[in-house]
Amino acid sequence: MRFGVTLLTDLPWAESRPRWIAAEELGLDHAWTYDHLTWGTLPDAPWRDALTTLAAAAALTSRIGLGTAVTAPNFRHPLPLFREVQALDEISEGRFLLGLGVGGDLDAGKLGTPPMPAKERVDRFQEFTDLLLRLRTEDHVDAAGRWFSTVDARTAPTASTPFVVSGNGPRSLRYAARVGDGWMTTGRPADGLDAWFSQLATMVATLEEGLVRAGRDPLTFPRYLLMDAPKAFGHGVFALESPGLFEEMTGRAAALGFTDLVTHWPRQTEPYRGSEQVLEQVCSDVLPRWR
Using CB atoms within 10 A of its CB, is residue 133 exposed (0-12), middle (13-18) or buried (19+)? Predict the structure, then answer.
């Protein structure tokens, strides 16, 4: 099992900088941040750009993986995004992980884009990701899509950045199984941990069926579980409430075949209010038992 932490970008760099360094020093395997223009849970907070932040974090570290959880097509186009991915791949010396997801309507709304039905957002996301995949492997890419187009896109592809595709519904799970270099999920809203893990089991079964259909090995496919989520998006529990809770959730996730678990850096206020001492204790006492 591998373990990671998510750091939000609402804090000034002077405050968040030591945390990126500490994430590596604590022995975590990867560190992540959200890729938003604004985040609905903290709508009035200043929000720094994710990719710029990760480039700075890459310059401060040497071992830990760094990624977005997740990048969506709400305010990004595949071609300029891929240019940034290429740069981050080089700056981090191959440590960058691109988490990709459908996203909601909030960021797009800031640019004046009307809300989309869920099916249309999934359609757009798959077109977005399909073009990213072409840019990663082809050169002089021509594409004429409903939402995204390129004309002779000269990428000279060298980046080998993994694309970790998120998804919760059957269609998105099958898509992640077919094209992703890994799968990421927060699960779905649930009334408590038991219900949350129960629906995760159903999602895992759908993913594994998709992997088999795609001719891929379910035993080697990376699966990232975002352990924490506000009630509107998950179970409403913060995994770092205690070392005991973190270990319980780790065991239950391992039994479902998850390979990577991601919590959040404890904050002084909600969401993810908690103690950095608990994070340190988990890293020193709990993680070694699961590696």
Answer: middle
